[in-house]
Amino acid sequence: MRLAKHLAHAGVASRRAAEQLVFAGRVTVGGEVVRDPARDVGDADAIAVDGRPVGAAGHGRVVYILNKPAGVVSTAHDTHGRRTVVDLVKAERRLYPVGRLDADTTGLILLTDDGELAYRLTHPSFEVPKTYRAVVRNPPVREPALRRLRQGVELEDGRTSPAKVRRIGPGELELTIHEGRKRQVRRMCEAVGHRVESLERLAFGPLRLGTLPPGGHRRLTPAEVERLRAGPRR
């Protein structure tokens, strides 16, 4: 197996990010720095990233669901010393967030050591749906604005795909999208005249936040992980 693919399967990072780790000289095989992500390796090879051993590809992967509180950043490490989602989930292995949320956005986020699963959940080609609840300014949200959201909104980085939208209160919306652009829901709502005051992710693929309290987390069951792997139903 190629080195970058091995790192992804071992849950170190996505395949593209794993390639960058190799190019940067942060990966060793048998104690020697390797800069070729296509280098053939096996489970018997002593592979390490930043001096930390990497386990066998596919061994004992885990996935956690977390209800992210406001003010917590969705990264594994923060250069400004802010609290991260990884700080909230105490695990013996290195975890990475899947489907990042803005610091001000709350709700469902996943953490895992399974790089291949993370790729399947976040790459746009797999069209994994994500559902949000937005409280917006200038209520009520009228039908023309809802229609624009459902048809797709023109943003500075291109037109969005159509969203599923329903009004659950005069100034409260539930939106489902399957793209992952930066601050997408906030920008979509602002484009139709309703700036977001608060935003919470309620669902990610087949998973729903449910009654998990802010800051709370739990490990997914094998059945839940398999539902994630299966992808959205067409």
C-alpha geometry:
elongated
CATH class of the largest domain: Alpha Beta
pLDDT averaged over residues? 90
CATH topology of the largest domain: Alpha-Beta Plaits
Beta-strand percent range: 25-35%
Largest sheet: 9 strands, mixed
Domains (count): 3
**Which consecutive residue ranges, at least 5 long each, have pLDDT under 50?**
none
Radius of gyration: 19 Å
Total strand segments: 15
**What string, H for helix and E for strand, traces the elements in order?**
HHEEEEEHEEHEHEEEEHEEEH
CATH architecture of the largest domain: 2-Layer Sandwich
Structural class: alpha+beta
Question: What percent of residues adopt helix (DSSP H or I)?
Answer: 10-25%
Q: Superfamily at the CATH H level of the largest domain?
A: Pseudouridine synthase I, catalytic domain, N-terminal subdomain
What separation lies between the terminal Cα atoms? 32 Å
Q: Number of helical runs? A: 7
At a glance:
The chain is α+β, with helices and mostly antiparallel strands. The protein contains 7 helices and 15 strands. The longest helix has 9 residues, at 15-23.
